[in-house]
Design brief:
By secondary structure, the chain is mainly beta. It has one helix and four strands; from the N terminus they run E-E-E-E-H. The protein has a four-stranded antiparallel sheet with strand order 1-2-3-4, with helices on one face.
Length: 93
């Protein structure tokens, strides 16, 4: 099985929430990693997404302790769309 990992830096202008998590995540720059595996048995290279992770920043009261969330990529895309939408009211605001 061949796995490749794509890394992307994403920016949220406003605090945001992701379905399935009970916290408000702060605005800022995040690293997103997506693992994809090569699908065998086809005549051309095809990759299937198997995991998406969002790396969170260390909290001020717990410096040096960072977390990583395994997220639904469609939910993350929806949160990014909401963040870019004009006139959106920031979470908690």
């Amino acid at each position: 099985m061949t796995i490749r990992t794509n890394t992307e830096t994403i920016v949220f202008r406003n605090a945001f929430v992701l379905e399935g998590f009970d916290e408000i995540l702060p605005a800022g720059t995040y690293t997103m990693e997506t693992d994809e595996e090569l699908v065998n048995g086809v005549s051309f290279m095809v990759y299937r997404r198997v995991s998406t992770r969002l790396h969170l920043h260390a909290e001020s009261d717990r410096p040096g302790i960072a977390r990583t969330l395994i997220v639904d990529p469609e939910e993350l895309d929806a949160a990014r769309q909401r963040d870019r939408a004009p006139g959106e009211v920031p979470v908690g605001g």
